[in-house]
Every structure is written in structure tokens, then in C-alpha cells.
Amino acid sequence: MHHKCYTRSTSNNILSDDFYCPKCVHLAVTRYNPFRLACTSLSDIENSEVDDTIIKVDQILNNCVSYNVKEFNKALYSQMNDFSSLLFQNIDGNKSNFDTFAIESHRLNKKFSIIALAETNEGPDSSSLYQLTGYNSFYQNTIPDKRKGTGVALYVCDTLSATVNGNVSHITEHLETLFVTVSSTTSPVTVGVLYRPPSGNVNVALSELSDILDSLPKCSYLAGDFNIDLHDKNSTIVQRYEEILLSKGFFPLISLATHEKPGCKASCIDNIVTNDVESIVASGILTDRISHHSPIFQIFDRNLNSSKTNLKYKQYYDYGKPNVNAFLNTLEYDLNNNIIDNFTTFHDIFKNCIDRTCKLETPKCSKRTALNNPWITPGLVGKIAYQHELYDKWVKVRKVKCKFGETENKGGTCQCPTCCIKRDKYKKYSDCRRKVKKDRRNVQSKFYGGKFAELHGNSKKTWELINQIRGKQKRQTKPLFTINNEKITNRRVIANEFNKYFVSLASNLNEAYNEIGELVINSLPSIYDYLPRSNTTSIYMHDCTTDEVSKIISELKNGKSSDIPIHVVKASSRIIAPLLSVLYNECLKEGIFPDDLKIGRISPIYKKENEELLENYRPVSTLAVFGKIFEKIIYSRLYSFFQSQNMIYENQYGFRKNHSTSHALNFSVNYIESCLDKKQHVLGIFIDLSKAFDTISADKLLSKLDNYGIRGNANKLIASYLSNRYQYVSVLGEESDKLPVLFGVPQGSCLGPLLFIIYINDLFRTTELGKFILFADDTNIFVADECKIKLYERANQILKLVQLYMKCNLLHINIKKCCYIHFKPSNRKSGVEHNEEEHVLTLNNVVIKQVKKVKFLGVIIDDQLKWDAHIRSLNTKLKCEIGKICRIRHIIPEKLYKEIYYTLFESHLRFGISVWGGLSNNRLEPIFITQKKCVRILFGNREAYLEKFRTCARTRSRDKQKLGSDFYEKQHTKPLFKKNGLLTVHSLFKHTCLLEMFKINKLESPAPLLDLFHRSPRRTDRFITPTPSTSFIYQSTKMWNDCRNTASKINFSTSTNLVKSTLRSELLSIQSRYDEIDWCELNFDSKELKF
């Protein structure tokens, strides 16, 4: 305080326990510190621990300082370098401010360990669009049906290991929280972010906060926007808030104002609270803001486990064009001048030629660091810094009072020198802010525009860039794992432990069956009890040709190999194809699969939860390229034989040509509806198998193959293929030792899935009491009966038989993920009603949960078959995709907009549409509205839309300030659909339905669906219409009959491509008829379709 002011003052005012005269009070810095007076009477407090804590908190609050970024970098660089740190920012909408926040983060000399954001207005689905370089993000769900004022997120430095703490992370309309647990060298550190919506009930929020603080361990830090002003000392809410914090052992660290709007009183509503005061090194706020909230931070002395993830990758080979050409010449010479009498010799020569021509004498080391925001330039960072300087200059003058009473912070209309300066400073700041925003967009567009220009014509690379923009990239694995309760950082050890874990999964599951006892095992049925009568026809593995081998090589996907780059194999196809055909034929003849081709490379892929635990990773396998070629040769012969012998179960829809999830869904729905029409109850039982591909027994599989006709050398070849297999794990730049694979079929192969569906091909023979619908390892059983009691008895009997089958075949049911739905017939008159509790399904004496809805092969099916749950889920997904499109639209060339629409939006809309799309237009309206929004965003007049918002309504004349219907009128989408040749959701349903029906009848597959279409005895191009419903069978049959034109040349001998294009053209024509601007019902009427 000023001594002169104090001596002259007659009435001193107390503000934050300091005395100021009335004239100087506006210069005071308001500071929150309820502990200051307590520190003056420490002698009254006997507990020395409390004394130390109060002193520490008092010092933290008094030393809480505001910095601009320059001051922060200079004053706290050493602390940021030596300790851990946390930054909190109320971002006020990711869409508006995230890019600016990303630029601001580049201004810091040292990045924060953890960044917490509130009011993101985004959930986990769109989190990939908002990534910061060097951080992993964690997003909480937003409040349902709330577009603004919701959402919290945490960004944890990618060198740290963090796991979401679900016990205290929750979301209600009153309080939103998200917590992660970060590994530390001493004890784990819990860090959370909080947002209290002002619209919620503050008392309920405080109660929820109290429960959360009770559950937090020691070393916890919670940053957030509490929306409780600590500077309002007389508030009862503040008093209760303080009582809750102090009673739980938590203390606030921020004492300065954190929120300020022009013309409004500054308030301290953002804060960081902790129960680990002893570790706090510094706290404060940053004055360089991107919203009305100032960023707040803390630096704390906790040694978080940090490990470098930017690994150095060693490049041992150079496959440039000159080296590949040299390799081809060397290979051709060596193959012509050596005797190649077996595959091992060929393989050795091939690899030797690569080593001689492409291997580097000294390996190159390179770092692969993913850049989420590579478009941020030093110039852009400098412009942001200059914008803050102009803002600070305006802030200094706006507080000066006008002599003539003008209260407008921007200067208003007053012509006094003070107000003129205010207007000038604000105009400079406003113009700069507007220019920076425009420059940011231009820099992004220019950067990515150049990238897209470089990739012109390369579709694969173009989509890799689009996915990078979308933030869709692999998460780096950290070299820190907890194995047997020990922290392991040795990368070689981690690789070996991963391999041991993956190999042991199947063995452990199968050993669990062995532990049930010899008596029980002997009582199990034999696999031959389920097999059909032995097939009298045996397979003949005919020789492959050079053309067949060349075709297979040309169809291989680049990058899908564990040993030799596929593009090198493709380049050498002309040289090696004739020799490979001879060698493969020799292997077919002798029944040998070369050992060199039976080694798999495993890459661990993170799934969810704790990143330090091996069980939270799944293995992805890649195989030797010459092994993949041989597998395709074997596959074509096996599959052709099974098809010719009609061996594969007709309701197996997985991994089969002309079979899909839509076929499985449509058959299932038709079966349920037909049973309900007969007034029968239906149970849909959905069974989940654990590691189904990995646990099957090779001996049992070979026995089954022999029964189906795969005998002699063919059976010997499959036995060779399955035996002596090895795998190794490649992770963190290290490769593990090789370990033998004792069970299962190889993943990443084309032959493995075929062998699996043959392995479970006899599952339906366990019982005839129910209908089995299979899609690979997805096992679904439907049981029907008029009597509910008999229905459940029958279902439980089926489950017992299925469980016996699974044990006999070393397959394992994951009971926790199994469930069932009870479909009940409508308007059924029943004599006696039974309590639902009396009817349960059990598996292994464990009750299976009953659900009202379940995701069945990607589509949510409900017990009423109304599809409302799926429509809601799909609409949410489509809106999320629109958000992603909005985010990336302005930096992607317009010529790619259609491809973006088809890939990111229509692909989701089309999936399973033949199953649920037969609803009325009214029920499809939410989907159609979302589709129209997407079309407007991608193909609409963006400039005309933005022109409405160029100026604020208050700046217009009074007669134009009221916004009428013209302002809110949206651009008509009918011309946009027509111009770009896009089908509406109604037309997509018709197109998919008719095309699927055409293929089923043309190809006569799948047989179960073909049997549901009944040709008219009078006109062979028409079908008998079944009972009306929304199902695929009825809808497609009705549309086909309605659209048949007497002059039509379309029939089931017409090519599929011609039908597809003709149907699309006709649907587009119907969409465009009648009114040119507005949609009408006739645009969606199937009766209008004639072709």
C-alpha cells in the first residue's frame, strides 16, 4: 500500500487483509487466502503437522503469480525442467479454440506433463480430431443432448503411463469429472479434471464432489472450472465448498482471478485442489488467454515414471529403385545358374540376393515422431504472441475511467482522448485477432494443399494423409510394463514376456479343461458323435500354373508380410513365378509345407485400460510372403471341394464367398418374425467364444478334415501346415526369441479362417431343438415355442449340449459376454402368466443375462424389432462423422469431397441398411435430416451461409436486428443431391435391397435366403409377396414386383454391374422429379421405380 495514502486516509477498506485508500483500491490485486490470519496465531495451534500445512498453503496462495508466456518461460523454465507440471484451461469449445490452443502450446519452452481441458463440447468419438503433439488424450462423454457447456479431457505426456480411473470418473448434469492414474517412482499419482455446469444444481454438485474427494487416494490433484467464485467471501456456497475441501484434506492452489469478461467483475472460479500440498513447487495463472478463462498451472515435486517413446528405428535395407533393379538382375542370374530342387534352396538364394544388393553396410537410424499439428509455423506463433501484446495494451487503457461518464470498455462514441485511445487499441487488437484466425486457416490449407498435390494420383498415400488429419494413427507402445508386480523397462525382456504371454493364452484355457478331472473328460462325447457320415469322395489337389501364381502375387497387398517386402516380390514376379509353380506343385505332391514359411511375426496392439499390463494388448500376426502365396493355392482347392460337396453348414455366413453379415441378419430377422407370426415366443441366445481361433486342436481338426474327404497327401499337407509353427514378437524396436505355437490356426492367413469354420461345421448337429446362425466364431441360437415354460426348458437343454460340444472340441465360452433376448408375440392370449424370475437361462450353472437390446453383427437388435435403438445409435455415429468432416473439410481439396462422403459417412449409413431400412419415412426422418446436414456441409454454398454471420445483429439498423425466417432458412438439399449424384437414405435402402435380392437369385446363394423367395408360377420374373412387414424379404419382393416394367430387359442373367448402374440411375431420376427445390413423398415411393 502507499504510505502517503494510508496516512491521509480517514476510512480504510480491508481487501484481502490489506489496507487501501478509496482512491487506490482499484489498483489492488484481489487474492483469495483464508489462511493468512490463521498464520498470525500459530501458537494457539498445538498440532505441528497442521501448522506446517497451513503455512505451506498460505505461502502457495500468497506466491500465486500471473505471468505472460515470455515471463513464464524465463521465470519457471528450470522448475518445469526438474519437476512435473499440470495446466488447466477452460477452452470454451474445441471447434472454436483448439487450434489456437495448439499454437499457444508451441510458445512454451517446456511442455507441461499433463494438460486438463474443460468445456470441450466433444466426447471420445471425436477426440482423435483434437490431438496435441507428444500427448495421449483421454476424453469423458458429454452430457446427452447438450451441445455446449459440457465435456472434459486430459492430455498426458506420451512418455508417461496413464490409466483412466473409472471409479471416480463420472458425468451428471451437475458435475463432470475425469481422472487418470499416472505411474510414479514412489506411489501412483491421480490427476483429474472437473467442470461444474452453471445450469446444474450447485448443492447437488458439491455433494457429488464430496463423494469423489472421499474416494481419492493420497497424491491426488484435481483441476477444473468449479464455477464457484472464491473472491465472494460472503457466499454460503463458498463457505460450504471450503468446508468440503478442508474436511477431506484438500486445499486450493490458485488465489488470483481466473475469469474476466469485459464489463464484468473478475472472479476466481477455476482452481486446482490437492491433498499433496508438500509437493507443490509453484502455482499461478497465464495472462495470455484464448477464452474468458485464464490458464492456470501448478508445478509439483513428484517423479513421474517417464520413458522415451520416440524410438530410433534402424533401417537395415534400402529398397530404392536402383537397388531393386540390381536385385532383379542378380536374382535372375543366380536362379539360372543354380540347381533349385527344393523350396529351402530357392528361399535361401532369394534372401541372399536381397542381402547382397539391398542390405546397408551401416544401418541408418531414424526417429519416427508423429506430428499432429505439423502446419504450425514460427510465423503463426509470432502472430499469436503479437495478438496478446495488443490485447494487454487494450486491457491497460480500458480500466481508465472516462471523465464524461462513458462506461463502454471499447471507447463507445465518446470523443475524449481517453475513449479515442480505447477505441484505437481495441481496433488494433480486434483486427489482429481476425487476421490471425484467417491466417491460421490459410496456413493449414496451404500446408495440406501442398501435401495433397504431391500425392496426386496415389490413392493409398492420399488416404494415409487424410487419416493423419483425422488423428487416426497407431498409439505408440511405451517401454514400461508391470510384469509379476515389477516395473520392467528392458525392451528385450518386454518382447520376450509378450511372446510368452501370447503363446500361453491358448494353453492356459485348454489346461483348464484338463483340470476338470479324468472321469469327467472320459464322459465327454467324441468328436465323431457330431460328424456326419464319412464322405466317400476324396479331394484331388491339382497342380498350380505359372499364371495362377502370377495372379496371386499381383493381388497381394503391400506391407502385409513378415520377412520380404511384397513390392519386391511383385517386381520379381516374372522371374520367380515359373519356378514357384514347380516348387509349390512338389510340395502339394509330397504333402509338405516348408518350415521357413511357418514363422509368424506378432505385433502387440493396445486395446484399453492400463497400458502397463500385457493382457491389455492383442496380438496381430503377419506371415512370410511365400507362405501366403502357397496358402492361397491350397485355399482355392479346399474351398472348391467343400462347395462342390456341399459340406459347409448352410447358415455359416463368415469367410464364405457371396455370404455377408447382412445375409445372416436378414435370415435371423425373418426367422424371428415368422415364429412371432405363428404366436410363438422366441429366444435369441448370443454366445461369445474366448480365443476361438487360438485354442483349436490340430489332431481334432485333421480328423474332421479326413471325415469330410481331405485325405492322403492333402491331409498330410494340412498337418504339416499346422505343425512346427513358431512365432516371435516385434515391439519397441526389439524382437523376442521364437517360441512354438501348440494350438490354433494361424491368424493373418487366408487358410486359417477356412479351417476354423470347418472345425465348428458340425456345431449345429448338437441338437435340432434350435436354429444356429453362425458368422465365423459368432455363435447365435434361436429357439421358438408357443409355451414359455417349454421354451426355456428347451433353451437350457440346448445350452447344456452346446457346452458339451465346446468342451469336447477345446472351445471356450465367455459366459460374461453371453446374453439373450426374449421376443414375445403381440396380442397373445395366455391363460396363466408366470413371473419372469421363474424363467432363466444358465450355462455351466451360471445365469446368462437377459437384455432388451444387443449389438448383433454390427446392428442393434431390440426385443420389439422396431430398430429405434439402432436408429438412435446410428444417428449419433453419423453426427460424430459430420463433426469430423467439419473439422477437416477446409483443408481437403474439393475434388476429394465425394470420396470423403462415401467413405466417412455413407459407409456407416449403408451398413446393414437392408435389415433396418424398411421403416416408414417418418421414422427414417432423423437419419435423413443428418444426411442433409452432411451434404450441405460438403457440397453447399458455404460462403452464403457465413455471410449471415459477418456482423453482429446489434450493429445493424433497428429494423434489421430482428432475425426472421429468411435468416434461419437452410439451403435446399435436393439440388445438391442431384448435382452430385447422391442417393438419399430411402434410395440407398431400395438400391441395397434390390441389389442383394438380385445377387441372391442370380448366384443362388446363400441357399437359406434363396429358399425364402418364391417365384410366381405364372410369371417367372415375379415373386409371391409374403406377409407385409419391414423385413428384407417382404420389402425386396414387393419392390421387385412393383418396379417390373413390361418392356424391361433386366433379368437374372443380366450382369450385376449393369443392374447396379441402371438401378442407381433410375433412383437418382426419381429423387429429382416433381418439385426442383422441395422434397415430396413421391421422391421416396418405391412404386415410382420402373426398370
Labels describing this entry:
1091 residues, alpha+beta, 7-stranded mixed beta sheet, 6-stranded mixed beta sheet, 36 helices, 42% helix, 15% strand, globular
Describe this structure in words.
42% of the residues lie in helices and 15% in strands. The strands form nine sheets. Strands 3-14-15-4-5-7-6 form a seven-stranded mixed sheet. It has a six-stranded mixed sheet with strand order 8-9-10-11-13-12, with no helix packed on it. Strands 20, 21, 23, 24 and 25 form a five-stranded mixed sheet that branches. α15 (546-555) crosses α17, α17 crosses α22 and α33 (985-1003) crosses α35. The model is unreliable at 6-18, 42-49 and 829-836 (pLDDT under 50).
Secondary structural class? alpha+beta
Strand content: 5-15%
**Distinct helical segment count:** 36
Overall 3D geometry?
Answer: globular
Unreliable residue stretches = 6-18, 42-49, 829-836
Instruction: Give the neighbour order of strands across the main sheet.
Output: 3-14-15-4-5-7-6
**Secondary structure: helix percent:** 40-55%
Mean pLDDT: 87
Cα Rg: 35 Å
Largest sheet: 7 strands, mixed
- The end-to-end distance, rounded to whole angstroms, is 90 Å
Layout of helices and strands:
Layout lengths: L2 H6 L4 E3 L2 E3 L27 H15 L2 E3 L1 H7 L1 H6 L1 E7 L3 H13 L7 E5 L16 E5 L12 E6 L4 E3 L11 E7 L6 E7 L6 H14 L4 E6 L10 H12 L3 E2 L17 E5 L5 E7 L9 E5 L11 E6 L3 H16 L6 H16 E9 L10 H21 L18 H38 L4 H11 L11 E3 L2 E3 L2 H24 L3 H6 L22 H10 L10 H6 L1 H18 L8 E8 L10 E6 L2 H20 L16 H17 L3 E7 L4 H4 L2 H11 L3 H11 L2 E7 L2 E2 L3 E3 L9 H9 L11 E5 L2 E8 L2 H21 L10 E5 L18 E2 L2 E2 L1 E2 L2 E4 L2 E4 L5 H21 L8 H14 L2 H4 L4 H19 L2 H6 L10 H4 L3 H4 L5 H7 L4 H19 L3 H4 L21 H12 L12 H17 L19
Parallel strand pairs: 3-14, 4-5, 10-11, 20-23, 28-31
Antiparallel strand pairs: 1-2, 4-15, 5-7, 6-7, 8-9, 9-10, 11-13, 12-13, 14-15, 16-17, 18-19, 20-21, 22-27, 22-28, 23-24, 23-25, 26-27, 29-30, 32-33
